[in-house]
Structure prediction request, 264 residues.
Amino acid sequence: MRVRAYDSDSNAYFKSEVLARINMGWYEKQLLIHGAYVKFFDCLDKSTPTAAEVLIHTIVPDVSGEWIYQRSDSVDEHPVEFTGLLGDEVRFFAYCGYPWIFEDKPLMLRLLSGESVALKGSVFEGKTFDARSSGWNYVETQEDADGFLCQAYSFHDSVLNNLHYISGSYMDEKNSLHPLDLIRQITMRIDSEWCKPIEMVFEGVTALNLRPASDNQDSIVFEASLFVKDACVFFCDEKVDDFDEAYTGTWVKAYGLRWRFINK
Prediction:
């Protein structure tokens, strides 16, 4: 599971794989890697309870098959493994994550108390948590974006062949709706006269503005733009100077982007 999170101490956004989640709803926290340390981060900004702002946004919702789930009988009780080890002021009633973290009680007590645990010298050192797919190029920085545009010749003389969106919402076999848009993924194929076809996958999509060409116009792109800011990407089919959600052409804003050249 990969997310984009906000760090109030540095007033900056960052991306991380999720190592564990505790509690749920108003009390949920996620265990994230931020720089050289690991820490539980709040999912909601509780300073404004009437309209709590989301601080952790899902990019890729899939979780590791190694994860376990443990919970107590009540939101006011700790899991039996931690009974008597935590003060009443520590809210901890459910755990979902790697078992070796949950089983390391001294480590869990430090993390649950709000402590940041350094990667170096801890059980986290040397472990690989990057679940990004092989065979793809990931756009994480403006340098990555500029390099992609260079290889794609800024999408000069290209067209949008097709676009597919997956929300994550669905109806099951019992005709019960599951209306949570957890995936929010767009896949585009771009055909170009200057390079091989390009497959782009936007993950954690927050906005899509699709503007097909009208009947008396062609759909050729002459120069596209791609920007990275605050751990977000913005792509549009015209040259612009920055994130421009007022742009009247086709554009996408998302928390993640991966791409690759494909065979015709």
User: Anything to note?
Assistant: The longest strand covers residues 198-209.
